[in-house]
């Protein structure tokens, strides 16, 4: 009989470093916007802030950078994937600066996408956004 391995989703989520240079990105100026948009739904604010820190914080040039940082700091990832190469194989578009937002049905992913897009527009990183 095979041993069954069980992992919690939260232990496999890649975490973005919260220490970013405010000269590169000052998220504090978006607090009133996020408070109004998310109206007490802190998980939405956290998702928006973490995605924007990843995309604009200047620490990561692609998803592989984030994966490498997380692999070295997360014992669960090291247990699940025998080596970094095996882990990198599961990262979609590892050489690109991309991310996905994983929230349950009905939790307001559209608000999260709008919040991210609005901050990227305000920072002048993009000039338009489209959603599928």
Which blocks of ≥5 consecutive residues have pLDDT under 50? Answer: none
Percent in strands: under 5%
Shape: globular
Write down the secondary-structure element order.
HHHHHHH
Q: What structural class do the secondary elements suggest?
A: mainly alpha
How many runs of DSSP E, i.e. beta strands? 0
Helix count from the secondary structure assignment:
7
Q: Helix fraction?
A: 40-55%
Mean pLDDT, to the nearest integer, reads: 92
Distance between the termini: 43 Å
Q: Biggest β-sheet, characterized?
A: none
| Alpha carbon gyration radius | 16 Å
Question: Can you give me a brief rundown of this structure?
Answer:
The chain is mainly α and 132 residues long. The protein has helices spanning 9-12, 31-38, 42-56, 63-73, 75-80, 84-89, 109-122. The model has no long low-confidence stretch (mean pLDDT 92).
Question: Can you tell me about this structure?
Answer:
The protein has 132 residues and is mainly α. It contains seven helices and no strands. It has helices at 9-12, 31-38, 42-56, 63-73, 75-80, 84-89, 109-122.
SSE blueprint:
Elements lengths: L8 H4 L18 H8 L3 H15 L6 H11 L1 H6 L3 H6 L19 H14 L10
Helix pairs in contact: 3-7
């Amino acid at each position: 009989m095979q041993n069954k391995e069980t992992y919690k989703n939260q232990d496999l989520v890649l975490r973005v470093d919260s220490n970013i240079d405010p000269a590169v990105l000052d998220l504090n100026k978006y607090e009133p916007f996020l408070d109004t948009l998310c109206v007490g739904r802190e998980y939405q604010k956290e998702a928006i802030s973490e995605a924007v820190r990843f995309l604009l914080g200047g620490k990561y040039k692609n998803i592989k950078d984030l994966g490498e940082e997380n692999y070295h700091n997360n014992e669960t990832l090291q247990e699940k994937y025998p080596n970094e190469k095996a882990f990198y194989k599961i990262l979609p578009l590892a050489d690109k600066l991309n991310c996905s937002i994983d929230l349950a049905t009905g939790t307001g992913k559209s608000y999260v996408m709008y919040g991210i897009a609005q901050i990227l527009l305000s920072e002048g990183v993009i000039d338009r956004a489209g959603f599928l």
